[in-house]
Amino acid sequence: IDSGDTLFAGTDGGVYRSSDNGQTWSQINVGLLAGPVQRVVVDSKGTIYAGVSQSVYRSINNGNSWQQSSGNVCNVMALSVAPNDYALAVFEACGIRMTKDRGVSWSVTGAGIELFRSLAVTQNWIAFAGLDRGGAQMSTDTCATWTNTVLPNASVRCLAVAPDGRVWAGTDGGVFKTSKAVTR
Q1: Three-state SS letters, 65-119
Q2: Cβ density class 25-64: b for 16+ within 10 Å, e for less
Q3: pLDDT tens digit string along 40-71?
Q4: pLDDT for 90-143, tens place per residue?
Q5: 132 CB neighbour count, 10 Å cutoff
Q6: Contact, 6 vs 48, CB < 8 A?
Q7: How far apart are CA 99 and CA 102, in angstroms?
Q8: Backbone angles phi, psi at 84, to 5 degrees
């Protein structure tokens, strides 16, 4: 994950930071619960979110220290930053939660979603969620409801929105992309 000139990586040993394009790395785990960091995202204001086991942690000082943000919920499956720097977290068997205040508080926005493995949100607030059991779903109402997409029935491991608005999906069956920018 890139924040300006700084790279962040979530690993089994926590979060690492590089300020020299990946030449050297420093472990930055002060306040971070021990255990693998499954997901890391950075918003445009520099807040870093790290999904660790059953919680989301945040750092507002470039990773120098971490605070538990979401409380202990369920296994963190995906993290994404949406427009307005809202952060979204998918919790296994506990639905989707959103923060509008840089991780101070979280609210449920998509309950009942259990099989999402990945999440990406376009600049015009269209959310895509990759399913563990195959395919992807799309939401145009801030993750309240979901509809199926035409993605092949393969486990979607990661999703990303390119600067041109196209959505990319990494699956067990290959890499797929939309033919054009996704709009409402």
Answers
A1: CCEECCCCCCCEEEEEECHHHCEEEEECCCEEEEECCCCCCCEEEECCCCCEEEE
A2: eeebbeebbeeebbbbbbbeebbbbbbbebbbbbbeebbe
A3: 999 888 899 998 877 899 999 999 999 988 76
A4: 877 777 888 888 888 888 886 555 578 889 999 888 999 888 777 888 899 888
A5: 15
A6: no
A7: 6
A8: 70, 15
How far apart CA 47 and CA 58 sit, in angstroms, is 7
Distance of CA 87 to the CA centre of its chain: 8
Question: Using CA atoms, how far apart are residues 69 and 31, in angstroms rounded to an integer?
Answer: 11
Q: Which two tokens stand for residue 171?
A: 């699956």
CA-based max dimension of the chain: 43
The 3-class secondary structure across 33-55, one letter per residue, is CCCCEEEEEECCCCCEEEEECCE
Output the six-digit token pair for 121: 């949100």
Torsion of CA 91, 95, 99, 103, to 10 degrees: -20
Q: Does residue 5 surpass a pLDDT of 80? A: no
